[in-house]
Amino acid sequence: MRRQLSRRLTALAGIAVLGLTAACGTSADDASGETLIISGVPAEEGTDLSNTYEPLMKMLEDELDMKVEFQPATSYAAVIEGQRSGKIHIAQYGPLAYYQAKQSGSDLSLLGAMVKKDGAEPGYLSYGVVPADSDIETIEDFAGKKLCFVDVSSTSGYLYPVKGLLDAGIEMDDWEQIEAGGHDASALSVANGTCDAGFALDSMIETTLIEKGDLKDGDLRVVWKSDIIPEAPITIYNGLDKELREKIVEIWKTKANQDYLVEKGYCKEGECDLTDQRIWGWQPVEETYYDSLVDVCDATQAAACKAS
Fold first, then answer.
1. Half-sphere exposure of 96 (CA within 13 A, CB side)
2. Which CATH class is domain 126-225?
3. What share of the chain is helix, strand, coil (3-state, %, to 5)?
4. Is residue 144 packed enough to be buried (19+ CB in 10 Å), middle (13-18) or exposed (0-12)?
5. Strand 67-72 to strand 146-149: parallel, antiparallel, or no bridges (unpaired)?
6. Which of 42, 48, 96, 229 is the most exposed place for a label (fewest CB within 10 A)?
7. What's the pTM value of the predicted model, to 2 decimals?
8. Environment class of residue 107 by beta-carbon count within 10 Å: exposed (0-12), middle (13-18) or buried (19+)?
9. With contact defined as beta carbons under 8 Å apart, do 130 and 186 qualify?
10. Is it true that domain 2-120+231-305 has CATH number 3.40.50.10490?
11. Which residues on neighbouring strands pair with residue 36, listed in sequence order?
């Protein structure tokens, strides 16, 4: 069945788009009058992602001799629709949103998956957390509780947590569900008592919120960890001019990373974390890397897994 599903997903095309489009009613800086549009949804609520993509965008402008812009988005649904209509061209997705985009027939291909360090295996975890002084000890104790999720299109903030709840013997919807809107908001809502427990990606709990001073080490207690989740992908729009698309694919393999961007002066060492997840760059992966999403969607029958 997995082999059949992999073929089905491949046939439906790629995701997060890196595309080229004529500037819509505005003059572009490059000679061709075209602009490459990048988009994504922040992991931290309210984050300005354009700043975190700036070194990458400058490098692409130089390499491609064309204008590159970042288009903010507040939901993956908006990014999927923008790519499907050809108005967004490079997009960073969560794994579930990538699955959704392919299910919807978006004509996209993978550029790579996020990695925190050069040579690292892509992958991350979802954490189930409670306040440090909570009586909750395991995910089995989440039954009947008020739970914070990120949103229903979040892989680590909804899909894998729901599978974890079902695996723990908790019936679907045997909890009060709150969608916090961001991984940071979900975790902070648990810390301030808005939710009895909640879910967020591992780095948000372990480093991001602590480094920002929003949480102290020990404010939250991890009582559940998911299986390894395929890392978030970035993709390219297949409707691009073939020569341009092939050039972008090659650039992504060797130049869309901290080492190259620091070496060429696009950012400074120690200040070159890419995206709001503070990654080193992206590593090429095959379509089959995301097969486990099919299994989780089959297990949960989540509405978010179905094409719109």
1. 26
2. alpha beta
3. 35, 20, 40
4. exposed
5. unpaired
6. 48
7. 0.71
8. middle
9. no
10. no
11. 20, 68
